Amino acid sequence: MTKHDQVRFYKLATILVAIYIAFILLINLVIYRQQSATLKERRADYALIVKDADFKRQKWLQQNKLQVVTSQSPQHTKLERSVADVLNRDHTTRNFSVRQKIDGRWYLVAVHQSSQPTFVLLMPQQRFWHTWPEIALTVTVLYLLFSLIVLWQFKRQRSHFYEHLKILVANIHHIRYEETPEPIIFQKDASLYVLAHEVNQLNKDMRHMRQKIAIQQGSFDRLIDHLPVGVMVINENRQVVLHNEAMGQLLETAIEPQKHPYIDDIKTYELTRMIEHTFRYRRSHHQEIQLIQNRERFVDANVVQLNTVKSKFQALVILYDLTDIRRVEQMQLDFVSNVSHELKTPVTAITGFAETLLAGAKDDPETLQQFLKIIYEESTRLTALIQDILALSHLDRQDQTQAQDIGLKAIVEANLELMQQKIQQKEIHVSVNIPETLTFKTQKMKLNQVLKNLIANGITYNKQAGSLVIAAQVDHQQLIIRVVDSGLGIPSDLQERIFERFYRVDQARATHKSGTGLGLAIAKEITESIGGQLTVESQLGVGSQFILTFPLT
């Protein structure tokens, strides 16, 4: 029990003792009044019967437990002297009754004064314990048991009260820290029933609220994780409290889920400076920066203040990857530059030779024939270049063409038929190893463009009287198409670059001026757009093998 309950316990015990004392005093008072009334009656009776000479006074006094003292009695004893003092003090009163303590004991004294000899009746004052000792003992024992039961019940109730109160306090603690509270049942008349009911209701409400928060937090986390931008939240202690996967990919580091200093993840000075300025000046910052790491990345960085309270200040870091945009912009610039260069060469040649012919060279038949041939070749090259540029522009558009089953061998033979003149001029031996029944579901026009570019490349850069093999087979749920030539070959260090726009191997550029440098780039981009892959295997001076791979599942 608490000190307050101990005080209440002692007060209750004191009250029970006081009730017992008051009860004894009340019983004693009742006995006193009864004795006083009896003594007055006996005084009147004694005054009448004392006149009778035959009256046996001693026997009557013993039966009524009385003592008598007269005015003629000698004053030898304390009792007689005390009675004399009473008579001397109250001699003016004829008949009276008093209570007198004589020799350590209380007596009820009834005085009768008349013409006859004055007498005094004395009766020892009776007490509850003297009058009914057995009853008094029984009552006392019963009351003592009752008091002990009351005190024990009080202590028990207070003990149960505090036990239940501790459970309720513990339950509130559990609810606060998202733990399971201990179940407890109260009767409706219990003192803590209302509190227990409210705690249980609070637990239900908090559980429901936490479920809603968990659902919302889960949705928010999924949203953050799927954002294409990097997100990081830094608290007032410069610690990372929230991040998404995109941020780790941009920073090229594994960000720990636990709180940790942000400088463990961010190594770029410009970004660190933006974050520190946001904390220092309490305002947002925006800047395009370059992240210093293994891979060059350009990002649009925003560091936003989330609130202005110092103890709760947080900074939100948002990184938007601009690398692909800047790469595309650079590719567009390079493309325009390359197109300008590639267009300038044939246009300049056509203009120059035309001006020469107009200046008088047309009068020489041999020169006229030579210049016209050059003008025709350059115009043909210019036409091919424009067609390839148009083909590249079509690749950037959304193609809604539906896939269809096509016969692969028929497409290859149709392209070979169109290039038959070039094949005959270079005396190339062509071999087609494709089953008649082999079909493939794809966009026909795109696949035809890829095969056309690869076959044209195999003819253009093949040697005189060389060979060209076109084969196809199905292997492990994949369609593999091979275009193998016996041409010049490509150095191993340049094999990856041949798929770049306007790139041509130097030896090929010097020997074959009809190429635009876009055919393989177009073939690779189209192949990837229809779900395939284009690779090359080549050996310098031996030939090249271009491999198309398409999944069939």
TrEMBL record:
Keywords for the protein's UniProt record, in alphabetical order: ATP-binding, Cell membrane, Kinase, Membrane, Nucleotide-binding, Phosphoprotein, Transferase, Transmembrane, Transmembrane helix, Two-component regulatory system
Keyword Secreted: no
GO MF annotation: an example: phosphorelay sensor kinase activity
Class of enzymatic activity (EC top level): transferase
Transmembrane segments: 12-32, 135-154
Broad class of where this protein is predominantly found: membrane
Protein name: histidine kinase
The organism's taxonomic lineage, starting at the top: Bacteria, Bacillati, Bacillota, Bacilli, Lactobacillales
